[in-house]
Design a protein that fits this description.
The complex is a heterodimer of chains A (740) and B (325).
Chain A lengths: L14 H6 L14 E7 L5 E7 L8 E6 L19 E2 L9 E2 L5 E7 L2 H10 L1 E6 L25 E4 L2 H6 L3 E9 L11 E7 L2 E6 L4 H12 L6 E4 L15 H13 L3 E4 L15 E9 L5 E13 L2 E2 L6 H5 L6 E10 L12 H19 L3 H7 L17 H12 L11 E3 L2 E13 L5 E7 L5 E4 L9 H13 L6 E4 L16 H26 L13 E4 L2 E4 L7 E2 H7 L5 E7 L3 H6 L3 E12 L6 E11 L6 H20 L30 E6 L23 H13 L5 E2 L3 H4 L3
Parallel strand pairs in A: 1-13, 9-30, 11-12, 15-17, 21-22, 28-29
Antiparallel strand pairs in A: 1-6, 2-5, 2-7, 3-6, 4-16, 8-17, 9-14, 10-11, 10-13, 14-15, 18-19, 19-27, 20-21, 20-26, 23-24, 24-25, 27-28
Chain B lengths: L4 E4 L3 H9 L3 E3 L5 H6 L7 E4 L8 E4 L2 E5 L4 H6 L1 H6 L1 H8 L4 H6 L2 H5 L51 H7 L3 E6 L2 E6 L22 E7 L8 E6 L10 E10 L2 E10 L6 E2 L1 H7 L6 H9 L14 H17 L3
Parallel strand pairs in B: 1-3, 2-3
Antiparallel strand pairs in B: 4-5, 5-8, 6-7, 6-8, 9-10, 10-11, 11-12
Helix pairs in contact in B: 5-8, 9-10, 10-11
Classes of the chains: A alpha+beta (740), B alpha+beta (325).
């Protein structure tokens, strides 16, 4: 491959469509004769439905009111789509009278217009037998459990004797943290339009994982997956909330079948706070022991995350701690607290974002106790290998990230003493933290098709929730085929395309990019065969070994002639497009040989108003070692988004629940605070020039998650530096910083 | 949203007649439409007053006369406002978002409804929304609720920023109704919740705000509005303070202070003002006076921090006012 497009800062191929409104999102695929469904959400937090007054059925325009009283029993065949919790069973919607959490769908109103559906939903009288739910992990009645039957993560990992090492450590810190529940709250609400044609179901549905949505809905309705098609060409932000297929998709399909018309169902912003997952609140303890010269002798990380009563949502809360630093004695323990709430789900940087907060704030605390610069402390504990698996890292550029980041940020200007830096009356603090996220790669497939005009069509059931999949995949295909990006047309977001893994876990480029590369190579092989079979071709009767592709032309290896173009080869065979579909999985040997992660160093400067407790980020810098950067412009944009997400996590985002019934009290964009433009200062992004020959053929590690991880602890560390106050909760708010 | 009928008034007389017949006034609609979408407000008739000639903003000597339909944006940017009462601009620009300020009017701003979350949840008790349905905030989420002027029926704050500045400035309302014109202090527009938190203001049925008059005074420009909140824009005040100082040789002749985010209405701090009169304009005077803001304040579980933040905000606002160059 001769990179022409890869590594170039191309602008978004779909940018014009997005800003002109030509890009169509799920709720915009209106169908002829479409009806509208509105979900009626439970107004109690636990209990059972005792009655539903059918009077609303007679309101104007109402086509159906569906509840557990009249809903068909759905098969709900077993299905775990790799994104669903492995233990437990998904919510069976409208199948019984039980209310498991506040906001659970308890009825569905379908009408000929949205207003009429809303009117009837508001008029629907439902009576309940309510019980008191337990919704907080600190509630005395909340009981932690060990995660069960989990194939992916170990709940408890131990090496050495961390308790003894902590007890005998020359210097120790032992701190706790409580990180709030967050909701994803992307701009685009969840929405599904469902239309049946006999036994076939089409869903235009917001999804980061259309292949799974197809299989899940097929399983719920007991259908063959090939009879379900899911279409989602554009996603207006998601951050993980559209990875799983949530009850509203089932409800849209159910409603459409019941009323015999296409049905549109969009969630309200308020409903986005309870049935479509959330980052679980976590309670953590992090204890570190060290020698006087700053060598870690013990790490104990105990983390607990909330989950629902019916599923065990597991995230990699303690995984980073296992391998991040060199330490002979490490214990990590992960527990869950089942609560009367909906099941949490992955949210950008799942696990690591919360777990690394505990590790990196504790390390900062240790740096102060030791009187060692926080970067130097990390340097002294930089491991040579992954000590939890004894495997080498495929590549690890953490210290390089610290070096270039510190230089650019001006870390040397920092005076270490808390409250030692000021700008007028404002306290200034600088903080730093490590970021990491595993370089994952699930199996993916793609189709490449060469047309008689020499252009290429590439298809994969992938998704683009914002990172620029459309553009970056086009770059990969163009370079693999040796043609300009303008001759490649990439389509995604359709379950009829070859399946792709979840558009999450920072693996889309590694997984889908590898599949596209392989599909392009495979189609080249087919074209070689065609050319070889063609008596009029210069390549007639020649083997693949004797030929090479140069700039989109097939020629004799080392030959001087320009060779045959794609158009010529396809045209010579009658113009019938040539296509190849290929699936690619990571070589399992690589997983056994290497520990593969992206790393980053984050630097933040905050100001804290000592009178009224306002903390603001003044500038921030993220330096990342994430393998090859396919498109620097998109990569920078993605990192900015992650860093902004980290600002939200550190200083604003929290879904507050009313302890009496579990209702979110800030289920509104005016009250669920996210950073606005004025909160985002100068952000800087640097990439280490990292070549990783092991991780995958493209050498990419992914950026989506690692760019959020590390931001919150860097901010908390900067707040400590500014104020001398260690805040043990996120988000850090005014009330925590009064009187500093 | 519940279907409703909308008529457009072409004269003040039309509008008042429509309101007497049961219609609700709508201007920018930034509160009303939002609440109608959530079915918290359920009017069946609206009368659109945007065509009425109430959009003038003019200086009358040192006084400002602000038409009720002047948008927040227009008022904030008006040269006479910036010249005579820059604190009004400052308070306006701290409110809402640019998009909302472009639509929202000065009269509507004063009548905006509370941000107590339970007010917007039809499945929660709220005495302000539904009389005698109970106050969910009392023993539920009350982190951003009032500590002054509360009752056992309601803890909700009034959300306006500019109202805080207007109350400090002794601004007056001009209203026109079936019984003619009335003028009264902005401060008297707002009612305490008592046992009837659903009654929020003192306008009579059919009365229409036509203008706000801000008396000129010796305060400007030594007047500042400080809004304390967790994000920099598009968030209601956790605590805010408008502080006005009349100084002579570093000594306070007169001070005016009003606070937002702490009271069930924009809260004038008269005890603090009196304590400042004749004192040097220094931090210890400010701190001493600010402590008096706590007289009668009562916190619940979630908003205890406001007992510390309120005086701190007042002190800081007074410093900002004093330090105006």
């Amino acid at each position: 491959m001769n990179p022409q497009a890869i590594g170039k800062p191309l602008t978004r191929i779909d940018g014009r469509a997005k800003v002109t409104g030509a890009a169509r999102y799920a709720a915009e695929f209106n169908q002829p004769n479409q009806a509208y469904a509105v979900i009626v959400s439970s107004t109690i937090g636990l209990g059972r439905i005792t009655g539903i007054d059918p009077a609303a059925e007679h309101l104007p325009g109402v086509l159906a009111i569906i509840s557990h009283l009249n809903a068909p029993r759905l098969p709900y065949n077993p299905h775990k789509g790799g994104i669903d919790p492995s233990y437990g069973e998904r919510l069976h919607v409208l199948q019984d009278d039980q209310v498991r959490f506040y906001g659970q769908p308890v009825a569905l109103v379908v009408a000929d217009t949205l207003v009429r559906a809303e009117r009837a939903a508001a008029a629907l009288r439902i009576t309940y037998d309510a019980q008191h739910p337990i919704v907080g992990p600190r509630d005395k009645q909340a009981k932690p459990i060990a995660p069960e039957a989990d194939g992916r993560l170990e709940a408890d990992n131990v090496r050495g004797d961390p308790e003894a090492a902590l007890a005998s450590a020359a210097v120790a810190v032992d701190i706790t943290s409580d990180i709030a529940r967050q909701n994803h709250h992307p701009m685009e609400p969840h929405a599904t339009i469902a239309a049946w044609d006999g036994d076939r179901l089409t869903l235009w549905s917001k999804s980061q994982f259309v292949a799974n949505e197809q299989e899940e809905i097929a399983a719920v309705f007991g259908m063959a997956p090939e009879n379900v098609q899911v279409i989602c060409p554009f996603v207006g932000g998601a951050f993980g909330t559209s990875l799983r297929t949530w009850p509203h998709v089932t409800l849209a399909a159910l409603a459409a079948r019941q009323v015999g018309r296409p049905v549109k169902l969009a969630l309200t912003r308020r409903q986005m706070s309870f049935t479509t997952g959330h980052r679980p609140r976590t309670l953590q303890r992090m204890a570190l022991g060290a020698t006087r010269d700053g060598r870690l002798t013990s790490i104990i990380h105990e983390g607990t995350g909330e989950t629902s009563r019916y599923e065990q949502f597991i995230e990699s809360l303690t995984s980073g701690t296992d391998f991040m630093y060199s330490c002979p004695n490490v214990r990590t323990r992960y527990r869950l607290v089942p609560l009367d709430t909906g099941t949490p789900t992955y949210m950008r940087g799942p696990g690591e974002a919360s777990g690394m907060y505990a590790l990196e704030t504790a390390l900062d605390e240790l740096a102060y106790k030791l009187g060692i610069d926080p970067i130097e402390l990390r340097r002294r504990n930089e491991p040579r290998i992954d000590e939890s698996t004894n495997r080498p890292f495929s590549s690890r550029s953490l210290m390089a990230c610290y070096d270039i980041g510190a230089e650019r940020f001006g870390w040397a200007k920092r005076t270490p003493e808390p409250q030692s830096m000021r700008d007028g009356r404002l306290l200034i603090g600088m903080g730093t933290a490590t970021a990491t996220y595993p370089a994952m790669q699930f199996p993916a497939s793609a189709r490449a098709r060469l047309l008689a005009d020499g252009t290429a069509e590439i298809e994969s059931a992938a998704s683009d929730m914002g990172p620029g999949t459309y553009t970056s995949m086009t770059q990969v295909a163009a370079d693999t085929l040796g043609i300009p990006v303008g001759r490649v047309r990439f389509s995604l977001g359709n379950s009829d395309f070859p399946p792709a893994p979840p558009h999450g876990g920072s693996q889309t480029m590694a997984a889908v990019g590898s599949a596209i590369r392989a599909a392009c190579l495979a189609v080249q092989d087919l074209l070689v065969e065609r050319a070889a079979a063609n008596p009029r071709s210069p390549a007639h009767n020649m083997g693949k070994e004797a030929l090479e592709w140069v700039d989109g032309h097939l020629r004799r290896k080392g030959g001087a002639a320009s060779g045959q173009s794609y158009a010529e080869i396809v045209g010579a065979a009658g113009g019938v497009p040539v296509e190849a579909t290929v699936s690619v999985a990571r070589d399992p040997e690589i997983d056994n040989k290497y520990s593969m992660h992206a790393f980053g160093a984050v630097f933040v400067e905050v100001s804290v108003d000592p009178d009224v407790g306002i903390a603001r980020v003044r500038r921030a810098l993220g330096a990342y070692g994430a393998g090859r950067i396919v498109n620097p412009r998109l990569a920078r944009s993605q990192c900015l988004g992650g860093m902004i997400g980290g600002i939200g996590m550190a200083l604003m985002e929290h879904t507050s629940l009313d302890a009496r019934d579990g209702r979110p009290v800030n289920a509104h964009m005016a009250e669920y605070l996210l950073p606005v433009n004025l909160d985002i200062p100068d952000l800087d992004v640097l990439f280490v020039d990292e070549v990783d020959p092991h991780v995958n053929p493209l050498g990419v590690k992914g950026l989506g998650e690692v760019s959020l991880v590390g931001m919150a602890p860097a901010i908390a560390n900067a707040v400590f530096h500014a104020t001398g106050r260690r805040i043990h909760e996120l988000p850090i708010r005014i009330e925590h910083l009064l009187g500093v | 949203m519940i279907p409703f009928s909308l008529q457009k008034a072409s004269s003040v007389g039309d509008a008042i007649a429509a309101a007497r017949a049961g219609a609700r006034y709508i201007a920018g609609g930034t509160t009303l439409v939002d609440l109608m979408r959530e079915e918290v407000e359920q009017p069946d008739r609206l009368v659109d007053i945007n065509a009425l000639p109430l959009k003038r903003l003019q200086a009358d000597g040192d006084d400002l006369v602000i038409g009720a339909l002047v948008t927040m944006s227009a008022c904030a940017a008006h040269p006479d406002v910036k010249r005579l009462q820059p604190v009004i601009s400052e308070a306006l620009l701290e409110g809402a978002s640019p998009q909302l300020r472009n639509l929202a009017t000065m009269g509507g701003n004063l009548l905006q409804r509370t941000r107590c979350p339970y007010f917007r949840m039809l499945d929660a008790g709220c005495n302000k929304r539904t009389p005698d349905s109970g106050c969910s905030a009392m023993d539920g989420y009350n982190g951003n609720h009032a500590v002054l002027g509360t009752s056992s029926h309601c803890l909700a704050t009034h959300a306006s920023d500019v109202a805080v500045a207007l109350v400090a400035l002794d601004a007056t309302m001009q209203v026109l109704g079936p019984n003619g014109e009335r003028t009264f202090p902005v401060e008297d527009l707002f009612r305490l919740p008592g046992t009837t938190p659903h009654l929020e203001h003192t306008l009579q049925p059919g009365e229409l705000i036509t203008a706000i008059r801000v008396p000129g005074g010796r305060y400007a420009p030594r007047a500042r509005y400080l809004k304390v909140r967790d994000r920099s824009s598009y968030e209601f005040a956790v605590v805010s303070a408008a502080a006005l100082l009349d100084l002579e040789n570093g000594v306070i002749r007169e001070a005016r202070i009003a606070c937002g985010g702490v009271g069930t209405k924009p809260w004038r701090m008269r005890a603090c003002e009196q304590a400042l009169a004749g004192r040097p304009a220094d931090r210890s005077s400010f701190e001493l006076a600010a402590r008096l803001s706590l007289a009668g304040a009562q916190a619940r579980s979630g908003n205890k921090f406001k007992m510390e933040l309120m005086p701190a905000t007042i002190v800081r606002a007074l410093e900002l006012a004093r330090d105006v160059p």
